Amino acid sequence: MKKTKILLIVFLLVSGLWLLATDTYARSGVSGRSKNTGAPTILEPRSELAIPDKEGRVEFKWKIPGQGSYGAKAYIDFRVYKGYYPYEEYLIYSEQVKTRTREVYLDGSMFQPDQGYTMTVRLVASGSRKSREVSQSFKVGQRK
C-alpha cells in the first residue's frame, strides 16, 4: 500500500511538471497548446501599393509577438515572390533576418511596374520550430 501511494505521488508530481513545462513552451507563442501561433504581423507594405522612399528603396516591416527570447539560433524567414503565389519558382529574394531586425529595404529597381508581388514572413525559433507564414501581396508604385 505504501509503495502504491509513493508511486501515485511520484506520478502526479511528474505529470504536473510535464503540464507546467508544456504550458510554458506553448506560451512562448511558437508551438504547442497555445492558440497564439507566434506569427509575425506585417506592418509594411500596409496596402496593395508600396511606394519607394526617396532613395528608391521599398520598405518591408513586421513585428514579432512576445517579449522573450526565441533562442540563439532564431531568425525571421523573409521572402519576396513575383506574382501572387508563394511558390519556389517565383522566388526573387530570400533572407534569414535576425529576430532583432524589424525591417528590410530592397532596391525599387527589383520591381516592375504593374506587376504583383507577394512577401512572406515566418518566425523560425530554436529547434526549427516555425510559426505560421504570413503574407502580403502588393504592387510597387511610382514616387511622385
Number of domains: 2
Secondary-structure element series: HEEEEEEEE
Whole-angstrom Rg: 21 Å
**Which strand order do you get reading across the main beta sheet?**
2-8-7-4-5
CATH class category label of the largest domain: Mainly Beta
The pLDDT mean sits at: 80
3D structure, described in words:
The chain is an alpha+beta fold. It has 2 domains: 1-36; 37-140, Sandwich (Immunoglobulin-like). Helix content is 18%, strand content 35%. It has one helix at 2-27, and strands at 41-44, 49-50, 57-63, 75-82, 91-98, 103-107, 116-124, 134-140. Strands 2-8-7-4-5 form a 5-stranded mixed beta sheet, with no helix packed on it. Strands 1-3-6 form a 3-stranded antiparallel beta sheet, with no helix packed on it. Strand 4 and strand 5 (91-98) form a beta hairpin. Residues 26-37 have low confidence and may be disordered.
List the defining traits of the structure above:
8 strands; alpha+beta; 2 domains; three-stranded antiparallel beta sheet; five-stranded mixed beta sheet; single chain; 144 residues; 18% helix; Immunoglobulin-like
